[in-house]
Amino acid sequence: MGASEEKVRMSSVLTIRGGIPLTGKVTVRGAKNLVPKAMVAALLGNEPSRLRNVPEIQDVDIVTSLLQLHGVAVERDATTGDLTLDPTNAKTARVADIDAHAGDSRIPILLCGPLIHSIGEAFIPDLGGCRIGDRPIDYHLDVLRQFGAVVDKRPGGISISAPRGLRGAKITLPYPSVGATEQVLLTATRAEGVTELKGAAIEPEIMDLVAVLQKMGAIIAVLNDRTIRIEGVPELGGYTHRALSDRNEAASWASAALATHGDIFVEGASQRDMMTFLNVYRKLGGGLSIEDEGIRFFHPGGKLSPLVLETDVHPGFMTDWQQPLVVALTQAEGVSIVHETVYENRFGFTEALGRMGATIQLHRECLGSVPCRFGQRNFLHSAVISGATPLHGADFDVPDLRGGFSHLIAALAADGVSRATGVGVIRRGYEYFTEKLGALGADFDLEEGQ
Ligand SMILES: CC(=O)N[C@H]1[C@@H](OP(=O)(O)OP(=O)(O)OC[C@H]2O[C@@H](n3ccc(=O)[nH]c3=O)[C@H](O)[C@@H]2O)O[C@H](CO)[C@@H](O)[C@@H]1O
Ligand SMILES: C=C(OP(=O)(O)O)C(=O)O
C-alpha cells in the first residue's frame, strides 16, 4: 500500500467523477499532530526509542530527514512501519542542508530545546504548514528566552543556543498554543530546576507527548486550570510508545460520509478524543455507531439540521475539523453559522465551494460567543452557510491540507467531473488517501505529476 502511495506527488492531478456515496472501511493510524513530535522527543534520550502506529505521511518524512541530518539513526521496520530512533550520535547539521527544509512543515521549531540539550545549539529553517493565518512564532521565541536561550534571526531561519544552559522558568502563555506548550514540554524536561506553565494547551496529542516524555523519565504534572509543572532531570532514556490515533483524519472521513450520503467505518477512531466532534455530528443529523475498534459514520437518510458552531482550543471544537465539516453543512437544510476563533484566515477554501454551488457568505464580525482575537480586525473569520445546495463539479488547486481534503469531499459529493491540481499537499497529513478513496468506491483517475 505504501509503495503505491508514492505515486501521489506534489503536482499530481486527480480527476474525480462525483455523486457516489463513499461506503466501506478505512483505517487511521498515528496522529500527524503527535507522531513528528514524539520523533523529536527521541532526541532528548541517551538511548534508542521505538515509535509504533506511525503513518506514512510527508510530515514524518520531513522530520526523519531533519533528524538524520543531525546524526540520529532512524530505521523503519519494513513490515510494521515502526520507527527506531537512535540519538546517541547526534551532531550539528550543515545549515545549508537544514535550510533545504524551509517551508516544509511547522515541526522544526520544536527541535530547539532538544537540540540545545543534546548538542548545544540549533539552526531552525523558516517554517511551513498550512497558510491559514499569519502563524507567528513569537510565543515560541519568548518561551525559549525565558529558559535562557539566545535567539538570532538569520536569513532563512533562526539560530539558537544557551551559553549559560537552559533553566526552568515560570511561564504564562497569552493563548493556549499547541506548539508553544510542546516547546515548553520539550525544553523543560531536561532544563535545570522547575518549570511552571500556565495557560497551557491540553489537546489529546499534547497529553500523548507528556506520556512519551514520562516514559523517558520526565517528571510532568498536568494540573487543572491549564497548568503544567515540570521538574527538570539531567538525563532521559528512550521510550516505546504507540501513537494515539489521528482524530483529525477520522473527522475528515466522517464528514465525507455525511456529505456523500455514505457509510464509512473508521477503524482506529477514538471516541474519547473526539467527543466534541461526535456531539456536533449527532446534532447535525449524522449517524454514529461507536465500537471498540473504531466508529461507523453514516448518513441515516432524511434531512440534515443546520448548526451554530465555534472552533476553539481543546476541549472545544477543533479547528482542523472545521473545513471538512463545512462541506457537510452545505447539505444541511437551513442556515448554519461557523465562527473560527483559532486561525484568522481559515475560510479561503470556501471560494472553491462557492464555484461548486455552495452558498457561503464570509463575515468580519464574530458570529458567536467565544472571546476571539480576530473581531474588529478585518479578518473574514465567520461563515454563514445556507443549504441544502446541490454541488456540481469544478476545477480547483489544493490550497492546504484540510482545505484540500474538503475540496475532495465536495468533488466526491458533487454531480459531474472535478479536476484537482496540487493534490500532493494532502499527503502531508492523510496516508494512502487515494487507496482509501478507491476502497470506498470513489471514481477517479490520478495523474502522477513530478
Ligand atoms: C503540527 C500541529 O500540531 N499542528 C496543529 C497545531 O498547530 P500550531 O501548534 O501551529 O497551532 P497553535 O496552537 O500554536 O496556534 C494557535 C493560535 O496561536 C497563534 N500563535 C501560535 C504560536 C505563536 O508563537 N504565536 C501565535 O500567535 C497562532 O497564530 C494561532 O492563531 O495546533 C493547531 C491548533 O489546534 C492545529 O490547527 C494544527 O493542526
Ligand atoms: C493546520 C494543520 O496543520 P499544520 O499545523 O501542520 O499546518 C492541520 O493539520 O490542519
UniProtKB/TrEMBL annotation:
Sites where the protein binds phosphoenolpyruvate: 32-33
Pathway it works in: Cell wall biogenesis; peptidoglycan biosynthesis
Active-site residues from the entry: 130 (proton donor)
Enzyme class, broadest EC rank: transferase
Gene3D superfamilies, sorted: Enolpyruvate transferase domain (3.65.10.10)
Pfam families the UniProt entry points to: EPSP_synthase
UniProt catalytic activity: phosphoenolpyruvate + UDP-N-acetyl-alpha-D-glucosamine = UDP-N-acetyl-3-O-(1-carboxyvinyl)-alpha-D-glucosamine + phosphate
Binding-site positions, UDP-N-acetyl-alpha-D-glucosamine: 106, 320, 342
One Gene Ontology cellular component annotation held by this UniProt entry: cytoplasm
GO MF: UDP-N-acetylglucosamine 1-carboxyvinyltransferase activity
GO-annotated biological processes: cell division; cell wall organization; peptidoglycan biosynthetic process; regulation of cell shape; UDP-N-acetylgalactosamine biosynthetic process
HAMAP family xref list: MurA (MF_00111)
Role: Cell wall formation. Adds enolpyruvyl to UDP-N-acetylglucosamine.
Similarity comment: Belongs to the EPSP synthase family. MurA subfamily.
Protein name (record): UDP-N-acetylglucosamine 1-carboxyvinyltransferase
Organism: Sinomonas atrocyanea
Lineage of producing organism: Bacteria, Bacillati, Actinomycetota, Actinomycetes, Micrococcales
